[in-house]
């Protein structure tokens, strides 16, 4: 299946969100998608787990995605509790629900809910829906992508071609985020070939037995090291990348 490219930008601060859903598949999927927007998702199976996490560090949580239809999540009561617990700042709440009637919508507005994800859940459609919700609320606010250092045993490599240069450029990935990566080059490459702002049409590397091929821009060149920002990545590749990073960050 082919997906349209999703623009990716490096930014300056990041958010933390709890994701409350009794389905492990759905809550993890939502965490992967949030990560692609620079938001660290913390999965919670039920109301009790959500409250335990938010009481440990209420100042860190600025967002919540809550399934309000399941008994275990506590629904509307949980939303009210979350707003009471986070007293130092506003918490942005997105509901996952089958409810779309006027009475339910009015109730959600009264509680200050910022957006809806209507069921049934479809991973392929959710990134666009979440992006629209977050855009409305945040305006021009920017978020920093969480960086991870790959496990050395993974030996993650990337390679690409530059027009007019006859050799394949390749290197070891030394850090990775949803917004880009840093490479240690295996072989010397002239500074003029890999200068800052050089466009890379297809930066190829393998994660979880799948080859990813985002486009990118070189933002830093320091001898044998390169920092590359992804300029576009398709949705399928973005989710593969998010799963890899999510498993390697501390909850």
Describe the structure using short key phrases.
alpha/beta, 2 domains, Thrombin, subunit H, 9-stranded antiparallel sheet, single chain, 27% helix, 251 residues, 5-stranded parallel sheet, 6 helices, Rossmann fold
How far apart lie the N and C ends?
32 Å
- Number of DSSP helical runs: 6
| Overall form | elongated
Question: How would you classify the helix and strand content by structural class?
Answer: alpha/beta
β content, as a range?
25-35%
Name the helicity range: 25-40%
Task: Name the CATH superfamily assignment of the largest domain.
Answer: Response regulator
| Secondary structure tally: strands | 14
From the 3D structure, determine the CATH topology of the largest domain: Rossmann fold
Give me the strand/helix succession. Answer: EEHEHEHEHEHEEEEEEEEH
Radius of gyration: 20 Å
CATH architecture annotation of the largest domain: 3-Layer(aba) Sandwich
Q: What is the total domain count?
A: 2
Which CATH class of the largest domain is shown? Alpha Beta
Largest sheet: 9 strands, antiparallel
Low-confidence stretches: 6-13
Average residue pLDDT: 85
Describe this structure in words.
With 251 residues, the chain is α/β, with parallel strands linked by helices. The protein has two domains: 129 residues, Rossmann fold; 95 residues, predicted glycosyltransferase like domains (Thrombin, subunit H). Helices cover 27% and strands 30% of the residues. The protein has six helices and 14 strands. The strands form two sheets. Strands 1, 7, 8, 9, 10, 11, 12, 13 and 14 form a nine-stranded antiparallel beta sheet that branches. A five-stranded parallel beta sheet has the order 3-2-4-5-6, with helices on both faces. Helix 1 packs across helix 6 and helix 2 runs parallel beside helix 3. It starts with a strand and ends in a 5-residue tail after the last helix. 34% of the residues are buried.
